[in-house]
Amino acid sequence: MDRITLGDMEPTQITEYLGLLYKVIVSSASSAAIPTPTPPQYAMAEAVLARALVIELGGDPQNVQRYENIELHPFSATPADMCWATRVTLHAVGAMHDPYRDFILLPAITGTPQIEPIRGDKAGLRHQRPIPGNTR
Asked: Does residue 93 contact residue 101 with C-beta atoms inside 8 Å?
């Protein structure tokens, strides 16, 4: 596994990393409950994630379809497809801002079950359009 030192990071990345580390230490030292998003907040976070995914995919309909197929049928996906989808997802989540990024990551970090969003559309990628000039 590659290791990244603080010297390899940009000042803004160091600030963000140390801020997150501080929150983790304070949280683990306190007995306060971890705040969880409400179903409407989680639904909004999923919408933000869907938009970030479309932006990460460059709005390309073929890539959106590929991602949706992998998401809906993960056990049928090849290892290469799973690797690709994981990279796309991690880049999209990394591009999200607080609190939405935290709402998406919280179930994975805490081991709590995923919050059911209000809407039934799981990914909603087809309904999202990238912001003009924001594609990579």
From this structure: yes
* Cα–Cα distance measured from residue 51 to residue 56, given in angstroms and rounded to the nearest whole number: 9
What amino acid is encoded at 57 in this protein?
A: L
Distance separating alpha carbons of residues 136 and 125, to the nearest angstrom = 17
Centre a 10 Å sphere on the Cβ of residue 131 and count the other Cβ atoms it contains.
Answer: 11
Length of the chain: 136
Kindly report, residue by residue over 23-51, the tens digit of the pLDDT. Answer: 878 877 887 777 788 889 989 999 999 99
How far is residue 133's CA from residue 86's CA, in Å, rounded to a whole number?
A: 24
The pLDDT value recorded for residue 124 is: 53
| Whether the model pTM is above 0.70 | no
